[in-house]
Amino acid sequence: MTANMRRSTDQPDWRHWLTLAAEHRLAGEHEDAVTALRAARRSVLARSEPVGEANVLLMDGLLIQDAGDHTRAAELFVAVGAALDGVSGSAAATLRVHALTVRGALHRMHGEYRTAHRLLTQAALEAGDPDGRVAAHNELGMTARYAGRYDEAAEHYARARAELESAHGPDHPELATVHHNLSGLAHARGDIAEAQRAAWLAVEIRERALGPDHPATVADRGALAAVLISAGRVAEAETILEEVLAAVEQSYGGEHHEVAVVLHNLGSAAFTSGHHGRAGELLARSLALKEKALGPAHPELASTLCNLAQVLQANGQSAAAVELFRRAVAVLAADTETDHPIAVICREALQNLTS
């Protein structure tokens, strides 16, 4: 237990403990967050407050989601709404919106973009405060981007940025998240200069707010490295990615989805450098981890399938490349636009390989 928690044992109110749990979660201190949550739960049980109960359920779901149990997290997020049934007031309304947003985000993580869009649109419409609208529009932007609807994504990110700057000014730490996502969108559109600008800005804001070693800052640096690969700064990108990989493996272990993301980018860097053997090994490892974390039909697999297929094609393994290109198209077909850029690349490759 940290010093802050030891000093705070004379403050048993659930609000205090949940604030502490949120602070520990933000700092990446999972065990301390769980300890604070237990204290909050005891306080809520002693008072029988529905809003307190709902807050505890929400934080419990977030921490369980962080630990990787998405099924249980989803159940807790739904339970937030049940706990608030018949409860009025702004606090209850804010909690309902928060629960809708995290439910939508969870569906987005699972590649269920239509369900995510429905829940997040409801959250954005019901949000009565800027922070609620920012969270909903940021998630709507991510959902639209992954589904291949780039113009729609840009609109939501612009709304989130405007709401944040209007409510909190231009230096709010959460703007790092928006700039991170704007960089990803610009990268997907091929605007590498804008992608670099937004990625550097995300890193700078996050480092000021949370320090260079926080998991969110590490993720920002990883996203920057992916852009640097496309900018031709491959050696610089590889140096960053090796540092990011070490940090992610230390934080989450070697089997985590975030490890797969870094391996994918390292594979892309190796392929760009002409090191096809290393690229194939890294991308195959990334694909295996993604399949383990997300299942065999998640849309996120498409980028790794496509890149690995390109490596195989470059190595003269056309039959194996065709199989992966076809699989990439298939995993995108269910919940994305037909003109999704990765699907277009894969269909063109298939036409060239099979004609």
Structural class comes to mainly alpha
Helix content: over 70%
Mean pLDDT: 93
Distance between the termini: 64 Å
The secondary-structure element order is HHHHHHHHHHHHHHHHHH
Number of helices: 18
Low-pLDDT sequence parts: 1-9
Beta percentage is: under 5%
* DSSP strand count: 0
Shape: globular
Radius of gyration: 21 Å
The largest sheet is:
none
Topology:
Elements: H1 3-7, H2 14-26, H3 30-47, H4 50-66, H5 70-83, H6 90-109, H7 113-126, H8 130-146, H9 150-168, H10 175-189, H11 192-210, H12 215-230, H13 234-252, H14 257-272, H15 276-294, H16 301-314, H17 318-333, H18 341-354
Helix pairs in contact: 2-3, 2-4, 3-4, 4-5, 4-6, 5-6, 6-7, 6-8, 7-8, 8-9, 8-10, 9-10, 10-11, 10-12, 11-12, 12-13, 12-14, 13-14, 14-15, 15-16, 16-17, 17-18
